[in-house]
Write a structure and sequence with these properties.
This protein has a two-stranded antiparallel ribbon. It has helices at about 45-50, 60-80, and strands spanning about 30, 35-40. It has one domain (about 25-90). A hairpin with a 4-residue loop joins strand 1 (about 30) and strand 2. It has about 90 residues and is mostly helical.
């Protein structure tokens, strides 16, 4: 049985100029906001976050559930089709 977590999406779109340092991004721009891992600033970064999702270490299942919800929100915003139904599908 898969874990069920009730999470509130924290991701919000952010528009930064090119070359803007990652440290200037708000926590809400990341899939994993507490750890500031996997920025979701455009479709390319979103695809990278999906690909790297299993490689993220030092996070709890609840943080993975939140990151997945943030990825879902970003995928809708950027018009990227996400075939996973929960974070276990990415791991």
């Amino acid at each position: 049985m898969r874990d069920k977590f009730v999470v509130t999406i924290t991701w919000k779109p952010v528009h930064m100029g090119s070359g803007e340092p990652r440290c200037k991004l708000p926590a809400s721009a990341f899939a994993f906001p507490k750890e500031r891992k996997e920025p979701l600033t455009d479709a390319a970064h979103l695809r990278s976050a999906v690909a790297r999702f299993p490689q993220v270490t030092g996070v709890t299942d609840a943080e993975r559930a939140l990151a997945f919800r943030n990825i879902q929100a970003a995928s809708r915003y950027f018009g990227v089709t996400l075939h996973a139904h929960d974070w276990h599908d990415l791991a």
